């Protein structure tokens, strides 16, 4: 497990997270890439941060979980930066994304946040 990964994500939860990212892309608002994500987290604008666990070097995301916890922003992990990139509509992989507006994904968002909180404790 990477230095920034604080808990193991079940496959089912990762799939739901990809689905939420796709829904937010279509009906809400997202920011892509670690620099953009860091900015919106620092401003407290993110509803959920999603990070890939296969990022190399891991230092790219080492600060993110702590920053999210400071700002009380939930975060989730997915296994693949390539799949995360696809879910956001990019042709290339992305290490992290922030969902600013979940759009029609609110029920799924609530379910993911609840599951993540349970995994962290």
Task: List its traits.
alpha+beta, 4 strands, four-stranded mixed β-sheet, 121 residues, single chain, globular
Q: Describe the biggest sheet?
A: 4 strands, mixed
Portion of residues in helices?
40-55%
What are the secondary-structure elements, in order, as H or E? HEHEHEHEH
CATH topology name:
60s Ribosomal Protein L30, Chain: A
The helix-and-strand class reads alpha+beta
Mean pLDDT: 95
Enumerate how many helices there are, as a single number: 5
- The total tally of domains equals 1
CATH class: Alpha Beta
CATH architectural type: 2-Layer Sandwich
- C-alpha-based Rg, rounded: 13 Å
Q: What is the global morphology?
A: globular
What is the spatial order of strands in the main beta sheet?
1-4-2-3
CATH homologous superfamily (4th level) name = Ribosomal protein L30/S12
Number of DSSP strand runs:
4
Low-pLDDT stretches: none
Structure characterization notes:
With 121 residues, the protein is an alpha+beta fold. The chain has helices at 11-27, 34-42, 64-70, 81-87, 106-120, and strands at 29-32, 48-52, 75-78, 96-101. It has a four-stranded mixed sheet with strand order 1-4-2-3, with helices on both faces.
């Amino acid at each position: 497990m990477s230095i920034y990964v604080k808990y193991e994500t079940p496959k089912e939860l990762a799939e739901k997270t990809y689905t939420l990212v796709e829904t937010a892309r279509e009906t809400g608002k997202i920011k892509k890439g670690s620099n953009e994500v860091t900015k919106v987290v620092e401003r407290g604008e993110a509803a959920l941060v999603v990070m890939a666990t296969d990022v190399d070097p891991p230092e790219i995301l080492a600060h993110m979980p702590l920053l999210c916890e400071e700002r009380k922003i939930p975060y989730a992990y997915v296994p693949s930066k390539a799949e995360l990139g696809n879910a956001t509509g990019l042709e290339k992989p992305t290490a992290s994304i922030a969902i600013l507006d979940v759009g029609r994904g609110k029920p799924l968002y609530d379910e993911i946040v609840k599951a993540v909180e349970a995994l962290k404790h």
